[in-house]
Amino acid sequence: MEMMEQLTGVRRCPHCSIAAPLLYRVWHSKQGEGTPRTDNQQRKAWAVYLCRTCGSAVSAVAYGPYIDNSAAEIYPSEKQAHEDIPPVARTFLQQAYDTLHAPDAAAVMAGSAVDAMLKAKGYDKGSLYDRIDKALADNVLTQGMADWAHSVRLGSNRPRHADIEKPHVSWEEARQSVGFAEALGNFLFVLTARIERGILAAKAAEEDS
Ligand SMILES: [Zn+2]
User: Taking the chain, what is the end-to-end CA distance rounded to the nearest angstrom?
Assistant: First the structure.
């Protein structure tokens, strides 16, 4: 990602997910000076960009005090579905992130991601409705999570079945659905994998000592 008049090389806007966003610079730190700091660490160059599509701000920081460097990080970062989530669910979740600018599509993808996550946990019989209730009965989901999962399911059904009364989901509803799919993925897979790796590392350390 190059921090010039425009921030280039960003695949999708981290806010609205539009592809190849036009991010134009509205502020940057003084060339060669970076931003002032009192902790005696190396100064860094910062710049703020606005997305032409959604108007949201993305900040970028360079390795040194010069802004012609490539960006080390951007905030917020681009949405990436975690690699510990099983492949099918991860693909749906990534598509949910990538379609946030199209709420109906994002809501449907969030529903598919939740469905695929429960299937990956062995709940492969019946409908998503059945899967959620079975996972609740088995204490894989808490009551609150099951309620939320049902609301994601309903939100994905409306555009999918072109609901007569309310066919579209709002931008906010889509964000909430995608947020839940992400949280469920973290809870069911990412956290578990991290804990398992931690336990293995602790065991290996014990054997070494
Ligand atoms: Zn945007």
Answer: 44
Residue 65: the pLDDT is: 87
- Half-sphere exposure for 102 (CA within 13 Å, toward CB): 10
pLDDT in tens, 172-206: 999 999 999 999 999 999 999 999 999 999 999 99
Ligand 1 centroid from CA 196, angstroms: 37
C-alpha 122 – ligand 1 centre gap (Å):
37
CA distance 166 to 4: 44
This prediction's pTM: 0.82
What is the domain partition of the chain in residue ranges? Answer: 2-75, 87-208
Distance 193 CA to ligand 1 centre (A): 32
Fold (CATH) for 87-208: Four Helix Bundle (Hemerythrin (Met), subunit A) (1.20.120)
Ligand 1: centre distance to CA 78 (Å): 11
